[in-house]
Each structure stands twice: as structure tokens, then as C-alpha cells.
Amino acid sequence: MVEKEKDDDDVKLGDRWVKRINREINSPLHKKWREQAKMAEQSYRDERDDNLKSEFPIWWSTVEITKAAIFANPPKPDVRKRYNDQSKTEDRLAQSIERALSFTDDTTYFFDNGQLAVGDFVVAGCGQAKVELDTETQDAPIIDPISQQPMMDEDGKPLLQKVITKQTVKLRHFHWSKFGWEPGKDWDSCGWVYFTHDMTEDEIEEQFGLEDDQLALICGTSKEKQYQKTYDVYEVWDKKNKKQLFVAKGLDDPLEENDDPLKLANFFPCPKPMMTNIKSDAFVPKPDYCFIEKQCRNINRLSSRISNLTEQIKDIGFYDAQLGELSQLSSAEDGTLVPVKNLMERLNKTGKTDFDSVIAKQDNQGKAIVLRELIAQRDIEKNNVFETVGIADIVRGASQASETAAAQTIKAQWANVRIGPKIKSIAMFFRESFRLMSEVIAEHFTLEQLNRMAGMQLTEEEHQALKNDLSRQYAIDVETDSTLAADDAEERGQRLEMVKAMTDYLNVYLPLAQQKLIPAEMVKQTMLFVIRSFKYGRQLEESMQNLPDNVQQLQELQQQLQQCQQQLEQATQQSQQLQQQLGKIDQQKNMREDAKTQAEIQNDTALTGADVELKAAQTANTYKDALTPEPVSVTY
């Protein structure tokens, strides 16, 4: 914990905030976390210079598997009216906000910035992004409301005003090292946060309009970056005083100071950061890498030994230098016989006639045994890593064919339990991001801009109601499992199950409603109760809300559900038939390849037999020619 600083009236506001930021950076817990996060990121990117230099990138592999398992698709906003008994106007306004958020998701780098934040969360233990509002304006003449003509000044020039031409709300990722917060027990007790901007001289001068002497003071704290010289400018959000400030080292006064620019309910322009392994008495994360650093070190050491032994194990041997002809063995083809002078005489002297008597091979048996043991030990260490971080083989796609479906299901459930907290943290992060973005849209976007984004035509009264009652009247969330990898078969099965459940319910209770044994309103409300338990029931729920409470409408709904069930069953059957056809095609392809292979083998066998017969015939002819007393003509 950092000791609460006492503001000195003699210290200027900018310098005061720079000192606060320095105290946060150097606080024991925050400093330790940043050191751990730096170590984890260096190991992930293989940028360390010590003995943890990756011979086997186990931490990189673990991070990539985890990211793919917990964040695979862009999150989808889910905006609904908070209470079911509200009017249809609230449905319409909720739909406009959801469409505006979806439009923002599609037209900005929302997913890219979210993916970077999730990467920081998995690697460094903390991921953060910030909601920003970009507004483009242009000068336009002021129109007289009576004459509808441009108003002029004393010189006869038209009076101009700034007119908004385009508004964009976006999510901007900040690296874990560029984000800081007031040390405390939890996020609720946090009174200020800051974001570090790397800005060039031209960017600072353009944004803040500094004089040359002030710019020179900031330039005194410059540092060389990868591409060009930049300077740290801190963007501070002071929740207590509702202030946004830009400060820099070397300047006593803030570069810029604004009064609550976004007017958000919780003031901060960022959600609660994604954090893992948080201490119970301090809001500080700890990277997962800290728990497997020893195993990573062992894996790298074993991998280094395996690499060295692999280089040493070679098929090499030695022979007597007098048998120089044996040097041709390394380049000889199969079946080649190399002539050696006086070979029999040399072999008779040794009393041996085998290959080992003329060539001594290197013995690799001991090294091979050690190599197998090292590989087995490394596998044990790898399993320790996967068990520690919760990456089961079913997540890695490394299950065995002998395992039953029930066993794989159990392992998949266990894996979801282990990575579930991270999935929940990501969902909460994007839910808060959507809520902040929706507040910005409702509070700052013009009616024309909102209508263009949502593809709707809201009235001025509806727009004003949206500004006043956003947080009270509407629930903003993230669609369940929208960020996870989709399973088409599972989704189709859940939809079919939902339609079947509703159809079976109507088959039982609709006759009772027709006989007036139970009211139709009760049937409708019970149906809504059933629909809400399904993931994909929202669209049908909205349609049922608009149905009149009579038996005829319920009968029409029953017919529609039966048609949907038939269509889904037909789609399932078609999918199964396609899979069977693909299986047959693969089987036929394998049979053709097998037949081709067999034909090639037979051709090779036939050719080999023909070669043997040809050689036998040539030998017979040679023997016959040797017995015939005829001169042999030799041409040189």
C-alpha cells in the first residue's frame, strides 16, 4: 500500500500529479507486479537474455491456447428493457442502442483492441482499454430562425458556428505498462487512474499548443523509442474532483484540464481492468507465469540437453586408412558392391569375415537411452504446466482415439471449470465497455448520428428519454458465449431442443386453453418463462410479447413452431446425409489410393522379376560364348 500523500499548496497541480504517479509506480506491490509482468512478457516473446531463453516455447504455447479457448470471436451486445411490463417504446430504444453498439463493433477496431487487452490479461495478469469519443466538426453559417437566411456580422461576413459532422465512439487498448491506478484494496476505492501516451514533439505542440520554452522543458525528459523520439504524457482521470488532466514531467502546470468531459455515471472512461490472481487485501494482479516459472526453466534446460544429445547421435564409423575404397560407402546406392584389393588376404589375417572387422561404428546406445529419458521427463514437466494453468488435453485437441465420448465430456467440463473465471472476467470487461459506450452514445451523439448508426428514425422526445433513463430503464449485457468459438452442431441442437420443448408444451396446454380450463394469458406467460431459459430464445420472446392474449394467436404460434421444428429436423437430416456422403467419398478415395499403391507394388515386383530373368539370360549367353572357340572382337 502507498502512504496517502498530502497535497502541498506550494506545489503546482501538474507537478503534484507527476509525483503521485511516481509514487504509484514505485509502490512495493505495483512495482513487484510490473517486474513479474515484464518477466512473463519477455518469456512469452522469447526476449530474455538469461538461461530462460526458450529452447521449447511452452509459455508461448500455453498463452496461445488459452487465448483461443477464452476469446475467439467479437463480443455481441445484448440490450433489453429492464422490466417486461414497460411499453414498446422502451423496446424500440433498446434496439436502437444495440444496433448502434453493433455498428461501432463492425466499423471500428473494437475486436482488435479487445484482443490486445485479452492478450495482456493472459500474459501479464492485467488487461485494460479505454472508451474514447471522436468528434469531427466544420464551420457552418448561423441561420436566422425567422428569415432563414445566414446571419452577418458588422463587416458583412456570415457568422459561423461549429457543426458536428461525424461522431465515433471506440475502444482503445493501452498496454499494461501504460496504465496505472491509485493503490488500494479494491476497484471501488480507486480515486484516480492514468494512461501514458507516447507523443512526439509535433503531436504535443499540435494537441496542446505549447510555447517553445514549455516544450523544451518536456523535451528534457525525452527517451528514444523504437521508431522516433517520444515523451511521456500522462492522462489523469480524477474521480474525486471530476477532472481530466494531461500532465508531463518537467511542467508545473497541466498541459490541459477538462471538467468531466464524458459525464459517465462512474466517471472513469474505462471498465474495471481484467485481472487474475488478485490479492484479497490489495487490488494487484499476479501473472500465471509466476506459478510455472520453475517448470518452464526445467523444460528449457531439458530441451537444451535433448538438442545437444540429438546433435551427438550420428551414424558414423572408422576404417583402416589402407582400405581407402571404403570411403565410397557413404555415397553408394543400394545394392552397390565396392571392390577392395586383397580383401580376402586381409580378412584371413584377422580371422574374421564380417563387416565389423573392417569398420568400427560409433556406439550411440547409451546416448539414445538418455535421450529417451530426457524426452519422458520433459513430457512430465509439460503436463505439470498444463495442470497448473488448467489447459487440459481436450482443450489442446490432444485426446486419444481410445477415449470414450463420456470421458472427453468430463474432461471438457473440468477444463471449463478451470478457465471459467477468465471467461467470466472477459465477459464482465466487455459488458462494462458496452455500457460505457452506450452512455457516450446516449449522452453525446446527435439524433441524426444515432439514427444513421441504428438505421431507425427516433424522435426528439425518444432521444431525450434515452439520455435521461439509459441506466435505469435498460439492461446492457454481452450475449452468452459470444466470445467463444462457435460449435455449429451444438447451436443447431440447442435451437431444435428449444423449439421441441415449446411445441410439446403447446400440445399439452393449448387444448386446455381452448376448453377454457386455463386462461390463454397463463399459457403465454408460462411460454415466456420457458423461452427465457434458452440461449437463443430472445427473438422469439420479443415476438411473443407482441401477441394478443387469445387462443387463436397461440394456435398460430403452435403451427409456426411445428414448421420450425420440421425445418430444423430436415436441416439436421441433410447435414447427416452430407456427412455420410463425405464419408463415402473419403472411403472411395482411400480405396483408389490403396489400389494405386498395390498396382505400383505389383509393377515394381514384375519389373524386378523381369530384371532377374534378363540377368540370368545374359549370364547364360556369356557362359555359352565363353565355351565357343571364336575370337572376340573388342573395340577401343
Can you offer a commentary on this structure?
With 636 residues, this protein is an alpha+beta fold. It has a domain at 487-624. The protein is 54% helix and 13% strand. It is built from 18 helices and 13 strands. The chain is extended. The N and C termini lie far apart (100 Å).
- Rounded to the nearest angstrom, the radius of gyration is 38 Å
**Whole-number mean pLDDT:** 78
Structural class comes to: alpha+beta
**Gross morphology:** extended
Please give the largest β-sheet. Answer: 6 strands, antiparallel
* Helix content bin: 40-55%
Unreliable parts? 1-5, 619-636
- What's the helix count? 18
Number of strands: 13
Strand residue content: 5-15%
Distance between the termini: 100 Å
List keywords for this structure.
636 residues; 6-stranded antiparallel β-sheet; 18 helices; 54% helix; extended; disordered C terminus
